Amino acid sequence: MSKLPKSALSLKQFMLRQEVLKLYRTIFRTIRLVPDASSRQELREWARSDFRANKHQTEEIAIKMLIQHGNRSLKELQTSLDLSGSSKT
Q: Contact 31/47 with Cβ under 8 angstroms?
């Protein structure tokens, strides 16, 4: 009999969760580079609402699609910051 609680994540679920958390942190680190305070706040609210809206998602394919969408959005934000000269990279 396994000693793991029934709510323990499988390895695949754990890996996806780590990927989501990494994306979340990277988005918020990038948002810190936005020079305009109101834009920064708006972006924070957008990111939080998107993550909260999908936090109960359990299907692996759907989560992977959401991660891809998040990565595309992050890339767009980084590109915008690069073009505006606000990026520290």
A: yes
Helices and strands (DSSP H and E) totals, the chain: 3, 0
Is residue 54 within 8 Å of 64, Cβ to Cβ?
A: no
DSSP assigned state of 34: -
pLDDT at 1 over 70: no
The pLDDT, as a whole number, for residue 87 is: 65
| Cα dist from 71 to 10, 13, 16, 41, whole Å | 24, 19, 14, 20
Furthest-apart CA pair in the chain: how many Å? 58
Rounded to two decimals, what is the model's pTM? 0.84
Q: At what angle do helices 37-53 and 11-31 cross, to 10 degrees?
A: 170
